[in-house]
Amino acid sequence: MYTYSPTAILITGASSGLGKALALEYGRVGVVLWLTGRNEARLLKTVRAAEQQGATVFWKILDISDQEQVRDWIDEIEEQTPLDLVISNAGITGSHSIGDEIETANTAHAQVSTNLGGTINLVTAIAPYMQKRRSGRIALISSLAGMQPISDGPAYGASKAGIIAYGEAMRDHLHEWDVFVSVICPGYIRTPMADQFKSWRPFEYSAEQAANAIRKSVARKKAFFPFPWPLVLGIRIGKFLPWKLRRLANQRFNYER
Q1: I want to staple 183 with a disulfide (CB 3.0 to 4.6 A). Which of 61, 121, 167, 203 is the partner?
Q2: DSSP character string of the chain
Q3: Strand segments (E) across 25-179
Q4: Which structural domain, as residue segments, surrounds residue 93?
Q5: What is the model's pTM?
Q6: How many domains does the chain have?
Q7: DSSP calls for 25-44
Q8: Residue 83: how many CB atoms within 10 A of its CB?
Q9: 81, 56 in Cβ contact below 8 A?
């Protein structure tokens, strides 16, 4: 039986979807949450819901891709209370246009800047504090798309694959200071962002189910947690197939087809 009860938790991308579900999964009496997102009205709904569960909640609207904003926010928090757990969840997605136009450079860079860049900004801001006190956990939300990208979401897959690589390397490095980094790769989750996927979404979790699974994996100190297992198994088997066969299978998972 694994027990882990962090009392000071930061979650990015908490205004809706998985981030909101994570805030409500962890939010309870005795827990202090620091939440951020880009949409103030939606974020405040999360704040109020977590407060109703008994949590103490602080919130801030910021751009996770802005290194200075993130660093200043972490410095401000750490002056008040050392963070036990930091969950890097904020992310955006994008795809090619309908027709023959490929995903634009601006669309691609925005995803890399937010998804991977935001993760790097957060980890590099909090890690030195955790190293000093030789404790702390960091959970990075990647995606199964980081293990097997879909053809009409190349930058999204690249940004999530980058999170996997970055998290694996940082876990090895920070282990010396007893700071643990988890890399988590969810499959389909029923969220507003996922609604952009119009094609097949097998083994889809609700946001609440995914948040519960993630909380358990963090408590068990799972270094790498991809789920659900049928999709993970399919991806791993697919790596042994010729790319043409893999391509045919992957077309079922595109945004629009």
Answers
A1: 167
A2: ------SEEEESSTTSHHHHHHHHHH--TT-EEEEEES-HHHHHHHHHHHHHTT-EEEEEE--TT-HHHHHHHHHHHHHH---SEEEE-------PPSSSPPPPHHHHHHHIIIIIIHHHHHHHHHHHHHHHHT--EEEEE--GGGTS--TT-HHHHHHHHHHHHHHHHHHHHHGGGT-EEEEEEE--EESTTGGG--S--TTPEEHHHHHHHHHHHHHTT-SEEEE-HHHHHHHHHHTTS-HHHHHHHHGGGSS--
A3: 32-37, 56-61, 85-88, 137-141
A4: 8-253
A5: 0.93
A6: 1
A7: HH--TT-EEEEEES-HHHHH
A8: 22
A9: no
In a domain, 124, yes or no: yes
Q: What is the pLDDT of residues 1-51, one digit of tens each?
A: 467 999 999 999 999 999 999 999 999 999 999 999 999 999 999 999 999
Say which amino acid occupies 157. G
Residue 139 backbone class (left: φ over 0; alpha: ψ -120 to 50; beta: rest): beta
Q: Look-up: residue for tokens 């969840």?
A: 89
DSSP code for 200: -
User: Does residue 149 contact residue 163 with C-beta atoms inside 8 Å?
Assistant: no
- Residue 10: which of 139, 177, 133, 135 has the closest Cα? 139
Looking at this protein, which amino acid is placed at residue 183? V
Q: Does 55 map to a domain? A: yes
Instruction: State pLDDT tens for residues 103-139.
Output: 999 999 999 999 999 999 999 999 999 999 999 999 9
- Whether 210 is in a domain gets the answer yes
Please give the torsion angle defined by the CA atoms of residues 226, 152, 115 and 224, in that order, rounded to the nearest 10 degrees: 10
What angle separates helix 67-80 from helix 118-133, to the nearest 10 degrees?
Answer: 30
Q: Do residues 90 and 144 make contact, with C-beta atoms less than 8 angstroms apart?
A: no
- Report CA 100 to chain centroid distance, whole Å: 30
What CATH code is carried by the domain that includes residue 224? 3.40.50.720
